[in-house]
Amino acid sequence: xxxxxxxxxxxxxxxxxxxxxxxxxxxxxxxxxxxxxxxxxxxxxxxxxxxxxxxxxxxxxxxxxxxxxxxxxxxxxxxxxxxxxxxxxxxxxxxxxxxxxxxxxxxxxxxxxxxxxxxxxxxxxxxxxxxxxxxxxxxxxxxxxxxxxxxxxxxxxxxxxxxxxxxxxxxxxxxxxxxxxxxxxxxxxxxxxxxxxxxxxxxxxxxxxxxxxxxxxxxxxxxxxxxxxxxxxxxxxxxxxxxxxxxxxxxxxxxxxxxxxxxxxxxxxxxxxxxxxxxxxxxxxxxxxxxxxxxxxxxxxxxxxxxxxxxxxxxxxxxxxxxxxxxxxxxxxxxxxxxxxxxxxxxxxxxxxxxxxxxxxxxxxxxxxxx
Length: 371
Fold this sequence. Notes:
- The protein is of the alpha/beta class.
- It is built from twelve helices and eleven strands.
- α2 packs across α5.
- It is elongated.
């Protein structure tokens, strides 16, 4: 069996043998066998030929011969060997990363083919925040099902925080979350600034502020913005501010506010906090709810106001007025997946549909950081 290395997965390095290696690898990698890559990776992991041979259940001489053959085919040394140590060369380190991705892809495709052969239908499980159901999903889901009729698509409504947790745990293939993931955006920079100010003793922590810590690990996740819209204020239609063309952050701070738990909606809560700027510390929070439908119920009852994405216009009853925030601050939907999703082929297909519907100019790579 032969392999082809995608062009976009080869990093061109300047200097010494890596330039030659990067240019040459595309022409020669198709001659390699998957078996050679597995041998190479075992040695790269162990950095010891004897232990690698034991791990592969083979003797050391044939293993050494296969690696020497691989080095001849590529035209570079992959290991620096001495009587005491084995170390990867720069070319070997590059091949290690590429080979691991290639073999991960192979294992994924092999499993998918076995599932099909056994009569098991492929399944893709994705989560989404409620606001995605009235923006991008009504167009993306039918397109995906039309292109992939054999795939079982399981859609689970979840908050952004819940999706991130499930993605990290591996129980979700892909998520549609609201606003930037923790630690990856201007929100994180603002959070660090807020922490420094608090640590300096310039102000006391208040109820509505960017939290001091992001506990969700996101190092293995990748994201792509797929939709952007304005933040709006929802008020009872009889409220004096309901007739304004737009509402300022200062005016919002003087109205009872219905907010959302940051642990479940970290990006969105941070985004709203940034939109309110210095007035966030004066916000009069009267309720904290999980679902936007609950918040709208409180607004309709005259309890207070809430800030939501502009797409909420599709859901509000006649008793609620929707007014833009002054300055037109925006909120975003992001597609999030693991760097190496377990259903890589299906995730790529879903991302293609998202790209076609949303006009994504840079597609989210799937093989290599909220509501």
